[in-house]
């Protein structure tokens, strides 16, 4: 049975077990040729089987422990995701309740968490890191940012403490549950085309946000893309849809990983991916409710 994945981490994990991948006279993954003819979802001769020490290890690296090397299960992903999201909630709560007592420190934690989380998140993503310490530190930084920005939005909207947060959390949970249900029922199918479309949308969204930020240095509110108004609401709804689509891609990666029997240590990277998507989804939900309150409370 041929195993394919759109997840870049999965592709690296699968490639690492295939000798000669990417060498001359071998076609790229998924493009036929000798590689595709040989690959049947199992390691090649001379390679350790999935879940055994040495699988997915680059030459010269120490072998994985038995725990890291055993095949990943859904429980592994759930437990590690609970740990990372729990860390986000913990540091978010600390920053949120610290803000009224010490606004200066609250702002420092908020923007420190934003910048630190951005830098560390990019490092983890591009390196495909499965280091638990790095991923938990990233979660802590994201929590600082989430807690601070939540308090800032509530102060701006003039709502009671926790009002916007509660609605944004509920919105995030509902969106996550809906995406998981649609994915499980195969209403949403994560194909290569789906991944390409979402990737283009992500890049376009990033360019749009950066352009709006640059313009805001010269014109208050920038292009109005993130301000309370009809255009801002439309943009937030689009961002929410894209964030939900990234969740579907994460679900597909986890499913492919379990089916392929990838090492247990990759569960940390999947937990990181889910945390990134959920934090982004929450912030967009928070911004949307802030806009609605700002518009209809006037």
Protein model, in words:
The protein has 298 residues and is mainly α. The radius of gyration is 21 Å and the shape is globular. The chain is built from ten helices and no strands. It has helices at residues 8-16, 33-38, 66-69, 74-101, 103-127, 132-157, 163-184, 192-216, 230-260, 267-296. Helix 4 packs across helix 6. The model is unreliable at 1-6 and 12-56 (pLDDT under 50).
Instruction: Indicate the proportion of strand residues.
Output: under 5%
Q: What letter string, H or E per element, gives the SSE order?
A: HHHHHHHHHH
In terms of per-residue confidence, which ranges show pLDDT below 50 for 5 or more consecutive residues?
A: 1-6, 12-56
Helix content: 55-70%
Strand-pairing-aware structural class: mainly alpha
Number of helices: 10
Largest sheet: none
Q: Kindly, what is the distance between the CA atoms of the first and last residues, rounded to a whole number of angstroms?
A: 60 Å
- Return the average pLDDT rounded to an integer: 82
Question: How many beta-strand runs?
Answer: 0
What characteristic shape results from the CA principal axes? Answer: globular
What's the Cα radius of gyration? 21 Å
